[in-house]
Amino acid sequence: MQLDLNLLTALDALLEEGSVAGAAARLHVTSPAMSRSLGRIRKATGDQILVRTGRSMVPTTRALAMRAQVHALVEQAHHLLSAHQELDLAALDRVFTVRWHDALTAACGTALTTAVRRQAPGVRLRLSTEPGADDAELRRGEVDLESSSRAPELPDIRHRLVGSDRLVVAVRPGHPLTEGPSDPERYAAADHLTVSRRGSLRDPIDDALITRALARRVVAAGPTTAFALQLALESDLVVTLPDAVTRTARERLGLVTLPLPLPLPDVPLYLLWHQRYDDDRAHAWLRDLAAETVRALFAPPTAAGAPPVPEPAAPGAGG
Known about the structure:
This protein is α/β, with parallel strands linked by helices. Helix content is 39%, strand content 21%. It is built from 11 helices and 12 strands. A 5-stranded mixed sheet has the order 4-3-5-12-6, covered by helices on one side. Strands 9-8-10-7-11 form a 5-stranded mixed sheet, with helices on one face. A two-stranded antiparallel sheet has the order 1-2. Strand 3, helix 5 (102-119) and strand 4 (123-128) form a beta-alpha-beta unit. Helix 1 (6-17) packs across helix 3 (31-45). The longest helix is centred in the first third of the chain and has 21 residues, at 61-81. The radius of gyration is 30 Å and the shape is rod-shaped.
């Protein structure tokens, strides 16, 4: 059936107003136009809808039966097509998949989950640290929010810079590097391990050493930051990693933190999402909340020594 859905709006107005003239005024159309709409509604439904009784019109039995349903359908359509839908966090029922680097998940996952549960108890989070491949999962909608140290190259992947982190060196207490001067030569001479979900034994530190005619020996690649820190604690291996996102884990293990004796730039931290979510108010709420949670890592410690608690994100704030 070829049905003009505008007839639902006209039918709703006719049933609410009980007259052609009243419905026409309500929808800002002429009475003849509303009369034509009533004729089309009668043809589509096989019912008179409104019948004349004296000088007024009254709804038929079928019209009375459908009035509440028609009004609900029109309200739902207006809500669905509204450019500024209100976000009811208390009633939000949705599952979000957040794929962050394992160190970021360890540092911020608890705070993000707690904030989500406090503001939107019906929302469920999947926190994943599995590596992606060319942002394919973002493009397919399998991942809602991702972390990265690089801005995306694909034009349909949006990003927001939420902070930058300096690199530091973590070693066990009593490690030879904790004694004597901290210089590139002594650093390069130590045995190292990298943190790589793909098992890479190289990273930008090797390139920086090459410019100084130095090279280091990487003897292991750990899949997670937690593994690498534990291995550094139990051996003489040196691990170099971002400071803020690993600070709590390093302090918990009692590792010694040393400055990196190389002039490397800070590591940026981006949140990534697909452009399909640009105007999604629930997604905007999540990424605002995630951004504030992550930014708290880079804020100066409070007097009590704990990072400040992020303020609740404003629903629908821009990406």
